Amino acid sequence: MNARHHLASRRNALKSAGCGFGYLAFAGLAQAEAAASKSVGPLAPKQPHFPARAKRLIFLHMRGGPSAMETFEPKPELDRRAGEKTRGNRWLTPSHWDWKRRGESGLWVSDLFPHQAEVADELCVLSGMHTDISNHTPAMLQLHTGSFQFTRPSLGSWVLYGLGTECSDLPGFVSLCPPVINGGANNYGSAFLPAVYQGASIADIKTSIKDARIRNLENTSLGLNQQRQQLDLIQSLNHRFAQRDPKDTRVDGVIESYERAFRMQSALPEIMDLSMESRSTLNMYGIGDGKPSDNFGRQCLLARRMIESGVRHVECCDEFWDQHNTLKQGHEARAAAVDQGTAALVTDLRQRGLLDETLVVWGGEFGRTPDTAKKNLDGRDHNANGYTMWLAGGGVKRGFQHGATDELGFKAVEGRVHLHDLHATILHLMGLDHMGLTYRYAGRDFRLTDVHGRVVDEVLA
User: Is residue 13 located within the same domain as residue 61?
Assistant: First the structure.
């Protein structure tokens, strides 16, 4: 080969190599993109025990205990006997709002909830709810974890453990504006389940979701490429450390959280940014400066955006439904905060074709008594013996009421549904057998419903 041919060959070789370098870079990016497009490891999507009716779960938590006889279960006998003395120095207290049958189903909804009244035909109202304890902290822990005595994994953690997540760029379980008291992080914690199944909290109940700032999400010192190199080094050490004790899942949780946090830098701010939503959508949810519905409306809209992006479970939280005094004023304020966003979420999910595969749950940790110790008859106390929650979408009957309390509202007497039964039913709708979803810890198998719970077949569509 002469020099001329040698130069030409070398030039061609470099040219080919240059294209090859570009191809290799493209292949690497494509591989990374493919890996990011689906979850791997403990959060990878899993097959349910049987075909699921619901693929996603949204819980609208009314912290403090809404009054059933003010919202979804009228008590004409209570109104008729208002002012009568009951046990000790207590008086029967009438409802403060008028009632109407709503929609084609004829469900009773009081005037306190004009927006939810418009979606009554989507609701499956459980009026025979009861639980074990009437103090806020243990009752909230039982609502979220199935136990008020011991630290147990939350419902969201069990769901994530059983089903995994379809989104690799966002947490699989998100708690928006959770309370910092009444159990705090235990309400969305994973307890003895691997740490990767813990919920991610955004803001807290004292902070507007509009003002939420997610710490450590952005690195202002390093670009993405440098961050990736730094993270690869750290993760190689983490993997090496994890191999020393495979039974210790805490390092796996760290590894997963680092990777997800890296991807969340771009994904989460985009989800949290509502500026791309139409003005009509924002108005539907009651979002706007100065509106009492702004904060909870934002939570509900974010919940819809998150489940659209593959998040498995989102909880939205509102306070303060605990009106021992000035119930009329307090419930009016809470209704003004949550009613519009709640109804908008149900409507929006229906319009987008998402409601049939999304289970929405609404309610508090218990209800309220039909009597009060206040002579002005403007207050109610805690009642764990009978209260109301509702479900919508995800395989439940529409425009349906199941169960009832006695004629005054002291106790559930028909269609009784314990919290364990509610948890069993939620898992069933999501394709999980509550008796088969177990995790072995400290020598025994644990489950969300412990040794209790039955699926409430009466409410299944």
Answer: no
Q: Tokens 């009784």 appear where? A: 416
Domain count, the chain: 2
Reduce the DSSP state of residue 109 to 3 states and report it: strand
Q: Where are the beta strands (DSSP E) in 353-395?
A: 358-363, 367-368, 371-372, 382-383, 387-393
- CB atoms under 10 Å from CB of 452, counted, come to 15
Residue with tokens 């008796």: 435
Tokens matching residue 52: 């699921």
Q: What is the pLDDT of residues 2-56, one digit of tens each?
A: 444 444 444 444 444 444 433 333 333 333 443 444 445 789 999 999 999 999 9
Same domain, yes or no: 24 and 73: no
* 369-410 confidence digits (pLDDT tens): 999 999 999 999 999 999 999 999 999 999 999 999 999 999
Same domain (yes/no): 230, 275? yes
Contacts of 129 (CB under 8 A, 6+ apart): 363, 367, 386, 387, 388, 389, 403, 412, 417, 418, 419, 422
Are residues 314 and 453 both part of a single domain? yes
CB 299 within 8 A of CB 360: no
Residue 10 sits in the same domain as residue 71: no
**In the prediction, which pLDDT does 31 show?**
37
Examine the domain organization and report whether 66 and 142 are in the same domain: yes
**Region 175-197: what's the mean pLDDT?**
95
Token pair for residue 283? Answer: 């108005």
76 and 48 in a common domain = yes
Domain range for residue 279?
A: 43-459
pTM for the whole structure: 0.86
Q: For residues 27 and 157, state if they share a domain.
A: no
